[in-house]
Amino acid sequence: MSSEWPNNVVKLPKKDYVRFYDDFVECDFCGQQTRGRVYEGSQQIVCGACHTPFFEFYTEPGGITLELDDGETDEGA
Question: 0.85 exceeded by the pTM?
Answer without folding.
Answer: no
